[in-house]
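Lab meeting prep.
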Amino acid sequence: HNHKSNQIDQIVVFIGEDSSRGGEHFSVSDLSLPPGQVEYVESLAAIGLPLTVVITAGRPLLIERILRCADAVLYSFHGGVQAGPGVFDTLTGAHDPRGHLPITFPRATGQIPIYHNRKTTGRPWSNGYIDQVDQPSLAFGYGLSYTSFEVAELSVNASSYPCDAETVELSLRVSNTGPRAGKALIQFYAHDHVASLARPTRFLCHHLWVPLAAAESQVVQVRIPTKRLGFYNRQGELTIEPGQFTFYAGLDSNADLNASLELVGS
């Protein structure tokens, strides 16, 4: 980057993996970016101009150092023939980025396997690594846009529902706290407190898009199909068991806003 920094007002750099490194039978034992790319981005950040990094890859790479030095990161994965115009429209603001991660990004390769819907084990949840924090770099469902959102006031419409009810109903307030219109992706995760089989600590059970003008706030009524709280037993049958469920609502799988209800058997 042999240039005069006073001739430009921001930097956009593209890094990542070639598409030939992705796909079936192309596993890797190290999720680091290709050699030299992180150091190159850090040298650009040292110039002091606003820095946007576009990452093209077919897997979740280790991007902690990139996140620390970049002002914005766009993870484009491997796109099709219209990937170029899509990235351009997003970078220039013609399109508001609304994507949310379909995978969890680890901080280190040694954290794998790491995913939001891990099974409960009975072990102390706080016991983890001695050289790394337990939390991922980016959570499943994480994503930003050119505005910002908040969720609040989550409540259940009834404290209990029969197991054969078609839906359970919740409500919450969604607010656009940013400077422009946008669509919030509200995600709902559930935790089954007691079950006949080991179940995930939390699992995605519902989502919805809420369009909001700048500074707008809405109370949203949500109906979640009760069958999404069930699981398939050893006979391959969908089972909805009675008991307590806690719902978490937010913008990614780390959502902590919660409310509980009970499913009651017949």
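Slide two material, second protein:
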Amino acid sequence: MSEQPPAVSGYGSAAYKVLSVRTSEDTRAQLEVLALLNERSVTEETRIALEHWVEQSKSDPAVLKRAEQVRAEIERDAETRRNAINAVLGGKDTKASARAPKQAQSSSATST
């Protein structure tokens, strides 16, 4: 059996990355009070707040709209890079080969 390193106290087995946040004295003081009231550390209180904000953002229509725009941009960039690597490797019709799977899917969907 292999031995696993001990988990960081209070964080279970999840891997965490350090994040340093600069904030005003007022916000820090309020965060410390909330941590005290909730019987948590300032770090834990901050982590919980950030996780809540991330989950809330996932249903924000403006964020979702921007995410779709970014996804489309990533797809365009990926196609350009695929075409470039195919050209370097000596591929023939790089645009047609990159689009072939999409065309096959759409034609089979319309024939059913």
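Talking points for slide two:
The two ends are 53 Å apart (CA to CA).
The mean pLDDT is 82.
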